[in-house]
Amino acid sequence: MVDKKVSKDLLGLLQKHDIAYLKTIEDVQKLIQTKEHRKRPRRLKDESSAPFYDFHRYGSYSQMVSWMRALARNDPQHVQFISIGTSHEGRSIDGLEVNLSENNY
Description:
Layout (H helix, E strand, L loop, with lengths): L3 H13 L11 H11 L22 H14 L4 E8 L5 E7 L7
Antiparallel strand pairs: 1-2
């Protein structure tokens, strides 16, 4: 898979050195997007108030943090939003602590 900007240069280089090549997929990004679009998130029961995160699609870190915070707000008896430290860039590394025992938090 080669970026469109680099594609012409790469093809020219391959031809210059008589290297055989075969382009099997014209547009990989378009193919991935088409396949991902067909996949719809399936939920066993629809609780519109429950936080939802689609693990079948790549989401940003901030989207995941928002989802984790929402989980902790919705079930504070069992779920706690925590920070386990900071990255080398000084950013918070966040996570969830899930506790199903009787003596919670």
